[in-house]
Amino acid sequence: MDHLRYSGLPFETQRTAFLEIVSADPLLAETLARVRALELPDWLMVSGALYNTIWNQLTGKPLGYGIRDVDLFYFDDSDLSYEAEDAVICRAAVHFEGLRLPVEVRNQARVHLWYPQKFGQSCPRYMSSSESVSYFASKTHAVGVRYDADGQLDLVAPFGLDDIFSFRIVPNRVLDNQRTHEVKGARAREHWPEISVVPW
Questions:
Q1: CA contacts within 13 A on the Cβ side of 70
Q2: Quick one: which of 90, 126, 85 has its CA closest to 107?
Q3: 3-21 tens-digit pLDDT
Q4: What are phi and psi of 32, to 5 degrees?
Q5: Which residues make Cβ contacts (< 8 Å) with residue 96, sequence separation at least 6?
Q6: Where are the domains of the chain?
Q7: What distance in Å separates the CA atoms of residue 33 and residue 8, rounded to the nearest whole number?
């Protein structure tokens, strides 16, 4: 199987292939439908469940292989309290009950409040869900999807898609996230040996 068949192709070709693979995946399609019904402000399904699904499809792996959960971002700066976010997380837990993949929900308007304690450094105060994606430890992982106003699946990919389709994990040095980049890279290689990890 030619797992690199989309590598190096124009962005629009890669974008079409990416969205077709995501839309055709039953696990992601069902999750996206549920997410849409939850009606969170500025929501975005991001990260592993997406690029792992691409790698699975291109290497002939089974449905859901290597995927631990679905990361769901939303952005609501009207109330930055822990309690407000926790209320959304609890509502989402009921809403997503029965899905094969657990959904982890996080308000990106609050990240700057807890990030320093968890990671030992500050991070910017994000202005949207899309902006937060551009601060991921690896450029390869900076990808998200959501439905637009017309019901079409839309893509957020600040660094493009070629790294995903080239099975290449590339560091994003905008923050000092070397450890996260290395840990995620090592885990990815265990599941998809076709992957190369660019050193920090």
A1: 26
A2: 85
A3: 999 999 999 999 999 999 9
A4: -60, -40
A5: 31, 34, 102, 103
A6: 11-197
A7: 31
Dihedral, 183, 184, 190, 194 alpha carbons, nearest 10: -130
- Dump pLDDT digits (tens) for 50-60: 999 999 999 99
| Cα distances (angstroms) measured from residue 105 to each of 53, 185, 187, 199 | 19, 23, 22, 30
For residue 191, the number of C-alpha atoms closer than 13 Å in the C-beta half-sphere is: 21
> Does residue 1 register a pLDDT over 80?
no
Cα end-to-end distance, the chain, whole Å:
30
Tell me the two tokens of residue 154. 């839309």
Question: Is the entire prediction scored with pTM above 0.85?
Answer: yes
DSSP assignment of 115-147: HHHHHSS-----SSHHHHHTTSSBGGG--EEEE
Q: What are the tens digits of pLDDT across the range 97-138? A: 999 999 999 999 999 999 999 888 889 999 999 999 999 999
Buried b (16+ CB within 10 A) or exposed e, 34-71: bbeebebebbbbbbbbbbbbbbbbbbeeeebebbeebb
Q: Helix, strand, coil % (nearest 5) of the chain?
A: 45, 15, 40
In angstroms, what CA-CA distances link 38 with 32, 74, 174, 181?
A: 10, 11, 32, 31
Arithmetic mean of pLDDT, 138-160: 94
